[in-house]
Amino acid sequence: MKNIFKPVLFGILSLFLSVGVYNNQSNVDINLNESVIVNKREATHTSNYSAYTYSGSYYNSIDITSLTDNVGGTLRKALTSLAYPKGWHEYYSDDTGTLSDKLQKSDADPTNSSNMVYFYTRNSVTKTPSNGGDSWTREHVWPQSLSNGHWGTDAGAGADLFHIRPVYSSINSSRSNKPFAEFSSGTQKTYNGMTYGYISGNYFKPLAANKGDVARILMYIYVTYYDAYSSSRPNLLSVIDSYDTLLEWHCNDKPDQL
After folding, report:
1. Closest CA to 142 of 247, 220, 81
2. Who's near 209: CB < 8 A, 6+ residues apart?
3. Strand 136-140 vs strand 164-168: parallel, antiparallel, or unpaired?
4. Which of 4, 101, 107, 192 would you label with 22, given CA atoms 20 to 30 Å apart?
């Protein structure tokens, strides 16, 4: 895993830091070349990562040239300390300030402030609280059952706004706890005519428009909570088939406006 860290870790974490979880301020400037995916369309992506630029001061305390690599190195430790959340949001309630309320803002459609964009399907839907049924629900992108018992809903990674995404309830059930993987063929999965991914055996492959988001979420969780769950630490390779897939998805599906 050593070769992953310095080339891509800053880009992986920066996507989430740009949201400004607790102060809603942007720390990252991105050259926006990708539009929100709506109306059953899947994005066409290129491997050109040069569109990403960072101009903030968030990382000023970290000197990438002097820190040691690998998960046990000082670079990972510095990033873990920097990115670790100062608090979390209520999981189940729909009240102001809860995950339900925050996700309607963080996943808002950049082209229509009255809508939010659901994960996996990438369709734009009128904002509404997460209230069960077949409306949207809170998706743990890294499934709770693959967390070695660490993902609760009160605090930590299981209640982290950068981790939880809004999805249709039935898609949440269909994807279940299948790890992510790259494969050439599989069973197409649809919801109300919208393709949201593919299943092959016990693996799930999201649309190209979501692959980078998935990779960055997984890497964010792994790095940010690496020390918090030092006992029976969750295994990154339990939730994605390889480091190569993680890196390729991150590079091929660069951060977009959403």
Report:
1. 220
2. 34, 37, 42, 43, 45, 122, 253
3. antiparallel
4. 4
Mean pLDDT for 3-29 is 42
Length of the chain, in residues: 258
Model confidence pLDDT, tens digit, residues 45-78? 334 445 556 778 888 888 888 899 888 999 999 9
User: CB-based contacts of 173: which residues, under 8 Å, 6+ apart?
Assistant: none
Which runs of consecutive H residues, i.e. helices, occur in 2-54?
2-17
**Phi/psi-derived region of residue 240, left when phi > 0, alpha when psi is between -120 and 50, beta in every other case:** beta
Which contiguous run of DSSP H or E holds residue 80?
A: helix 74-83
Residues 92 and 180: their CA atoms lie apart, in Å, by 26
Listed in order, strand segments (DSSP E) in the chain are: 108-109, 112-117, 124-126, 136-140, 164-168, 187-191, 194-200, 203-206
Q: Is 159 left (phi over 0), alpha (psi -120 to 50) or beta?
A: alpha
Report residue 213 as tokens: 């988001």
Is the pLDDT confidence value at 29 over 60? no
Buried b (16+ CB within 10 A) or exposed e, 166-192: bbbbebbebbeebebbbeeeeeebebe
Query: Which structure tokens are listed for 231?
Result: 């006992």
148 and 229 Cβ atoms separated by less than 8 Å: yes
- For the residues 102-121, what does the mean pLDDT come to? 94
- Tokens 């990033």, located at residue: 79
